[in-house]
């Protein structure tokens, strides 16, 4: 009796790509977990009354999440997808095996409108006690760099990618952030890819000396989200820091950096 084997090159190639993707995802998640562990401080601080509201507070392990963005789809965009001519009977094409791009750690922030080109670095969190409750505070870098809280989403991942920075001290990385408007573009690079975003929300929220409930409501904008988004946070205005400037953008595309292979 003879046994016949048939080699399916397409299926083998797809399986190989899947395995490579899973290995790459595991490496990225391991690096992300290591950054999170390294950036946590276990010391609990009492918030000085003179700095009330200076840094956003977030309750640990909050499940409420960030507010929902109301984003409309351009007219006709959805209806054009997947349409065929009436009465046609076309065979379904066999898709080529593709590898879904992996989430990436943000490394560079570019906003052409305000001439901003800055590195992005992981930032530390500290635990702070207000009354009888312990909260987390993410601390902006004391240099010309945007900070990426490592508990927030990576680029290209469903969730809220948060970047924070000073606007009037330590390099003033977000000095001109208040000039941005809805519709402006933001680019973040990471993993040898360029991720593009379009601003949909620009908010100035009362923070310093605001009541605790208001501060926690403001902090919802840096909580995890059910959609993919980018959130930039700094203080405002430069002479008093009484408010929080929060800018939220939605993804509009990504592409490999010139001459680089995506990671």
Walk me through this protein's architecture.
The longest helix is centred in the N-terminal third of the chain and has 30 residues, at 9-38. Mean pLDDT is 76; it is low at 38-43, 48-55 and 72-92. The chain contains two helices and twelve strands; from the N terminus they run αββββββββββαββ. The chain has an eight-stranded mixed sheet with strand order 7-4-3-9-10-12-11-8, covered by helices on one side. A four-stranded mixed sheet has the order 1-5-6-2. By secondary structure, the chain is of the alpha+beta class.
Share of β-strand residues: 25-35%
**What percent of residues adopt helix (DSSP H or I)?**
10-25%
- Give the total of beta strands: 12
| Rg | 22 Å
Strand order in space, largest sheet: 7-4-3-9-10-12-11-8
H and E string: HEEEEEEEEEEHEE
**Mean pLDDT rating:** 76
Quick summary of this structure?
By secondary structure, the protein is of the alpha+beta class. The chain is 14% helix and 33% strand. An eight-stranded mixed beta sheet has the order 7-4-3-9-10-12-11-8, covered by helices on one side.
Topology:
Blueprint: H1 9-38, E1 40-46, E2 58-59, E3 108-111, E4 116-123, E5 125-130, E6 133-138, E7 146-149, E8 159-164, E9 185-190, E10 193-206, H2 212-219, E11 228-236, E12 243-256
Parallel strand pairs: 1-5, 4-7, 8-11
Antiparallel strand pairs: 2-6, 3-4, 3-9, 5-6, 9-10, 10-12, 11-12
